[in-house]
Amino acid sequence: MKIRPNRLRVGDTVGVVTLSSPLAMEKLPGKLALLKELGLNYKVGQSVGLTGNYLAGTDEERLNDLHSMVRDPEVKAIFCLRGGYGAARIADKIDYQSFEENPKVFWGFSDVTYLHNAISEYGNIVTFHGPMLSSVTKEELSDLSKKMFQQLFTPLEIQYDENISPLQTIVPGSVRGEVTGGNLQRLVSTLGTKFELNAKGKILLFEDVGESLENIDGMLNQLRLARKLDDAAGFVIGNFANLEDGTSNEDVLRLFDEYLKPLRKPAVAGFMIGHCEPNISIPLGVEAILDADQKGLRLLPGVQ
């Protein structure tokens, strides 16, 4: 069982870091407004505002920022400001024991998938797959997306069914297991490394953005050849947004049909998890029940 971080309380201080691509500083105040709205104080890491071509400063600057926030007893949660690229560059330098010794909320998605995977395996804590603060404005973040932050303040069992979005069963059945996964491209990039995706007996979440059907096919095939699809207990298919070459979601679903139906493991598509609105935040590393017959996903609370 993964360690669940303590719940947040109004008045707590949280840390804001940029572990991937930079964000223009003039946009920062609007992105931090939600934290104030939630009743939180914040410390802005030194990586925020740094630039280095396509990265937020150097690897050492981003790494030091993360370590400072993890080890700071005043900081109760760490929110990633922006995705893009760069998180994997520091994965082999992180002190994962410090996460286990100082368990706290770690929140983000997309490029941060690499760190969710690494922290789960080596830091042994539950992390949270949720929207980056860079997407936080009144125009960009829906009320439902904002509501999902409340799971950090109260241990709530999350129940996702068709009241949130239409769901499609790919393979029927029901399964219980630990939820892991996230961005498909970043998960595939772990293969052959120390941080290789551990799918054994787990419910795998997949989402992505801006890919062609050919690339999605290639990534699923690589997971198949690496036996990760065989290892998994079930599959949650999130949102695939801004697809290239006129590719439709129906095209993507047909591709998942092709890869997942022969496995005869419960699989459901249509979850608004990923680069979409609403973006339903979920804890990774908790036990969940995926019921493909009733088209639903239930997850245990991510905080204690």
UniProtKB/TrEMBL annotation:
Gene3D superfamilies: Class I glutamine amidotransferase-like, LD-carboxypeptidase A C-terminal domain-like. It comes from the Bacteria. One of its GO terms (biological process) is proteolysis. SUPFAM superfamilies: Class I glutamine amidotransferase-like, LD-carboxypeptidase A C-terminal domain-like. Keywords: Carboxypeptidase, Hydrolase, Protease, Serine protease. The active site is at residues 110, 207, 275. Belongs to the peptidase S66 family. This is LD-carboxypeptidase. The lineage of its organism: Bacteria, Bacillati, Bacillota, Bacilli, Bacillales.
